[in-house]
């Protein structure tokens, strides 16, 4: 049958896409369930990398090295250092006592291992601690002419261009000679400057007495001068009971204004990843995360290929791309950290007489944790706003815009399943019987109220037309909004419109009669 008209905008008609409502709902539920599993997996992966022992290990170590006061001077600890004198008191007092634990509290030798130190008897000091100083050159700033007679020296703030790389003092040991920085080591961001690696470096001895003599010698020979801008104290611990490394950095900055500003970093990290059964559960979550990443990347690639430039016009698509980028960065960080730990850990543990630079590993491990935290934040943002607001709100708004009550398919599906179960258990009559009974009751009620048979039959005919037309043009099973209309359907629409016009005219007449009667009564 030839088509009389088409409800579309020019050209050939679009193909009809017929989907059953249940299939559409099932697909939506599957997608939501899949993404919910992804979120659960990501949460397990994120929170599985931290545990309460990290907090308590940081707490006891910070209490030992930051809050312990100098003997005989209760107001002086690392946090309260304000002068060079206070700094040397800390070095020869709380730092020295905190690093060397080689005997029980009864002064009985605790370990047979040669020159080993176990802080709080549980935390092995890895290698030896390192102390590093960065300096600036003289005449790096300009003194006003009127004050040049009073001040012949001028030391500016620290920058890489102002750094002093020449030997000074005794010029004998490494602490008096400049060591070139390692390009792979991260820079340190302090309160008054950004500091690179290298500088004037020395390591402490395994012997407590030798280390104390070293500190006294440096103090008497003025290792700290006006050109000093920062001193780093770095060392690492390992607690086998909880399988955690604690990387500690104490920083004393000497700003150009004078005085000392102290800061610190305590990183408790799990560098040995796969030891217990729980660790292997986390490993399985990591593998699952990579599988999800591949699936989501494939889906987005298909969307870009299908929609081309139109894909990038949606804010939600940009959020999806941002989430994928963060996921790839997190995976890259994880792979890089594991490779570096595998390559460096054994070498760092071999020589116990050298400084073990675990700060480099902890630095990238912390960055990996930060990336994972940002990823899970945006993943939940996508779940709440993209899945809820963008889809459901748009559908409901579209339904209201065409004057149709929105169908909440999920609720209808659950209600339908519930009714089917009751009908099978014979706890409820079939819906068709109830509908027929409802129709009969309505007709009988109309007769009792004085409507004649012609009016009742006309109303039933119009109701049938209405149901048939709504099924045809407002069915949720049809996804295409522009449907072709045949000659027969056009005729039915025309007759339906004529009947509606007649009914409207009939109602208007009755309303006019009623209004005239009301006016006459008044």
Description:
- InterPro entries: PKD1_2_channel, PKD_2, Polycystin, Polycystin_dom.
- Disulfide bonds join 141-154.
- The protein is of the alpha+beta class and 522 residues long.
- It folds into two domains: 23-50 and 276-400; 52-269, no CATH class.
- Helix content is 52%, strand content 12%.
- The protein is built from eleven helices and ten strands.
- It has helices at residues 21-47, 52-66, 84-99, 208-220, 277-307, 315-350, 359-401, 409-424, 431-448, 453-473, 487-521, and strands at 3-6, 118-119, 123-135, 188-189, 194-195, 200-203, 228-239, 244-253, 261-269, 484-486.
- A hairpin with a 4-residue loop joins β4 and β5.
- The longest helix is centred in the last third of the chain and has 43 residues, at 359-401.
- Mean pLDDT is 78; it is low at 1-20, 389-394, 396-408 and 476-482.
**Structure classification:** alpha+beta
Order of helices and strands: EHHHEEEEEHEEEHHHHHHEH
Q: What amount of the residues lies in strands? A: 5-15%
Largest sheet descriptor: 6 strands, antiparallel
Mean pLDDT: 78
Radius of gyration: 40 Å
Between the first and last Cα atoms, what is the distance in angstroms? 60 Å
Number of helices: 11
Helix percent band: 40-55%
Q: How many strands in all? A: 10
Shape call: elongated
Enumerate the spans where pLDDT stays under 50 for 5 or more consecutive residues. Answer: 1-20, 389-394, 396-408, 476-482
Q: How many separate structural domains?
A: 2
Organism: Lynx canadensis
Domain Polycystin: 77-272
Protein name: Polycystin 2 like 2, transient receptor potential cation channel
GO biological process, one term: detection of mechanical stimulus
């Amino acid at each position: 049958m030839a088509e009389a008209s088409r409800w579309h905008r020019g050209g050939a008609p679009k193909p009809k896409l017929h989907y059953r409502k249940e299939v559409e709902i099932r697909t939506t539920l599957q997608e939501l369930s899949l993404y919910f599993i992804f979120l659960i997996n990501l949460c397990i992966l994120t929170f599985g990398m931290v545990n309460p022992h990290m907090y308590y290990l940081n707490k006891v170590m910070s209490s030992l090295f930051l809050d312990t006061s100098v003997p005989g001077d209760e107001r002086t600890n690392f946090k309260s250092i304000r002068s060079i004198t206070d700094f040397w008191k800390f070095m020869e007092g709380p730092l020295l006592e905190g690093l060397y634990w080689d005997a029980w509290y009864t002064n009985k030798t605790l370990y047979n291992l040669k020159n080993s130190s176990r802080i709080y008897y549980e935390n092995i000091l890895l290698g030896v601690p390192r102390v590093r100083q960065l300096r600036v050159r003289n005449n790096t700033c300009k003194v006003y002419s009127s004050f040049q007679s009073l001040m012949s020296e001028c030391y500016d703030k620290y920058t890489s261009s102002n750094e002093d790389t020449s030997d000074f003092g005794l010029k004998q040991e490494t602490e008096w000679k400049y060591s070139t920085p390692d390009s792979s080591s991260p820079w340190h961001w302090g309160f008054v400057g950004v500091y690179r690696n290298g500088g004037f470096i020395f390591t402490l001895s395994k012997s407590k007495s030798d280390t104390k003599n070293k500190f006294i010698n440096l103090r008497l020979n003025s290792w700290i001068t006006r050109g000093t801008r920062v001193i780093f104290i770095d060392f690492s611990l390992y607690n086998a009971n909880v399988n955690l490394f604690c990387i500690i950095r104490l920083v004393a900055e000497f700003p150009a204004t004078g005085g000392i500003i102290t800061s610190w970093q305590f990183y408790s990290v799990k560098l040995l990843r796969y030891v217990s059964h729980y660790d292997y559960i986390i490993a399985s979550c990591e593998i699952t995360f990579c599988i999800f990443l591949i699936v989501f990347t494939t889906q987005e690639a298909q969307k870009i290929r299908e929609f081309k430039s139109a894909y990038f016009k949606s804010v939600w698509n940009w959020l999806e791309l941002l989430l994928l980028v963060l996921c790839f960065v997190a995976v890259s960080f994880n792979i890089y950290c594991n490779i570096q730990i595998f390559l460096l850990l054994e070498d760092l543990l071999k020589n116990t007489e050298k400084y073990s630079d675990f700060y480099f590993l902890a630095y990238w491990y912390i960055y990996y944790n930060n990336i994972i935290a940002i990823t899970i934040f945006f993943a939940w943002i996508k779940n709440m706003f993209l899945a809820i607001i963008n889809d459901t709100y748009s559908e409901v708004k579209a339904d209201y815009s065409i004057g149709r009550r929105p169908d909440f398919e999920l609720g209808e599906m659950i209600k339908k399943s519930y009714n089917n179960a009751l009908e099978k258990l014979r706890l409820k009559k079939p819906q068709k019987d109830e509908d027929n009974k409802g129709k009969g009751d309505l007709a009988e009620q109309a007769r009792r109220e004085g409507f004649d048979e012609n009016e009742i039959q006309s109303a039933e005919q119009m109701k049938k037309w209405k149901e048939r037309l709504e099924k045809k043009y407002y069915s949720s099973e049809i996804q295409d909004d522009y449907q072709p209309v045949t000659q027969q359907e056009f005729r039915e629409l025309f007759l339906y419109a004529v009947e509606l016009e007649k009914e409207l005219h009939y109602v208007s007449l009755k309303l006019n009669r009623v209004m005239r009667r009301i006016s006459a009564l008044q």
